[in-house]
Amino acid sequence: MYRIPILQMGQMLLVTIQVDMEDQMALALQDDLANKIAATGAKGVLIDISALEIVDSFVGRMLASISGISRILDAATVVVGMQPAVAITLVELGLSLEGVRTALNVERGVELLAQAQGEASSGRR
After folding, report:
1. CA pair distance 102, 79, nearest whole angstrom
2. What percent helix, strand, coil does the chain show, rounded to 5?
């Protein structure tokens, strides 16, 4: 099975999803990311989904789950690059991705993570 690479960039992990995610791949990503956060002590996770044209309800729930797991492990998560069709599909499926921070692009996502780290270090989380 293909595994989605997780790259470490300082205190941040970068996940770029370049293929349509199947259920098993999403579950593997969840496990791999939790282990990588724990192993590295990362404080931020940036998930780039700009290449995804279709997201089903399972993958949508997995993104929310990954964000929750990251939060418990003391890392903020930002999902970037969501295509308009994906956003529309998620809303039509009734998935608001509550608790998941989103940004239009990687640059804005990095800014959000930096802001979250600043809030965490000042105790305002």
Report:
1. 5
2. 45, 20, 35
